[in-house]
Amino acid sequence: MFESVKARLERFFREHTRSDPRARATVLREALLEAKVGLGTMRDALAATERELAAERQHLAAAERRGRLAAELPDPETVVLAERFTVRHRERVAVLERKLAVQRDELVLVEREVAEMLTEYRAARPGNPSESIEAAWRDLAAAGADRPGLGLDDERDPGVDDDKRREHAVEAQLAFLKKKFGKQS
Fold first, then answer.
1. What angle do CA 50, 177, 134 make, to 5 degrees?
2. Of 39, 22, 3, whose CA–CA distance to 114 is shortest?
3. Position 66 in a domain
4. What residues make up the domain containing 181?
5. Is residue 119 situated within a structural domain?
6. Is 77 exposed, middle or buried (0-12, 13-18, 19+ CB in 10 A)?
7. Is 44 inside a domain boundary?
8. Mean pLDDT of 78-90
9. Fewer CB in 10 Å around end: N or C, the chain?
10. Residue-level pLDDT at 151
11. Which long-range contacts link 97-106 to residues 24+ away (Cβ below 8 Å)?
C-alpha cells in the first residue's frame, strides 16, 4: 500500500513542476494521510505476527514435551511422529522470527519516510495554518463527512488555538479515511 502512495507522489512531482505550491501541498497532504493509514495497517500486521509467533512457540514447547514423553514409551512410531511435529513447529518458529524481523525493519523505514513526507508537507503548505484547517474541513465536507459546529449560533471558540483545530481536522480526516477503506476498529 505504501509503495503505491510513493509511486503516485513521484509521478505527480515528475509531471508537475514546483510552480503550483497549493497543488503540491494538497498531494503531499493526501499522500501523508494515506501513508499514516498504511502505517496503522503495518503495525496491525506486526502485532498479528507477534501473536502468531507466541502461539507457535507454545505449540513447539508442547511438541517437545510430547516428544520427551514419547521417548519413554517403547513405541518407535510415536517417537518418530513426535519428532516430526517438533521439527515442523521449530521451522515455523524460525520463519515467523525472520518475518517479524523484516516487518520491524520495514516499519522503521516507512516511519522514517512518513516523517520526511511530513517535513516536506509542512514546508510546502502555503498560507497560514487556519487556511489549511479550512481546506481540510472542505475536503471532508466534499467527501460526505459532517463538520460539527456549522450552526448560525456557533462562534469560534477563542479558547481553542489553531494547533488544536489543525490536529482535530487531521484526526477527522484520518478517521474518515479509515472508515472509507474499512480499517475502522
1. 135
2. 39
3. no
4. 128-185
5. no
6. exposed
7. no
8. 93
9. C
10. 45
11. 97/53, 99/49, 100/46, 100/49, 100/50, 100/53, 103/42, 103/45, 103/46, 103/49, 104/46, 106/42
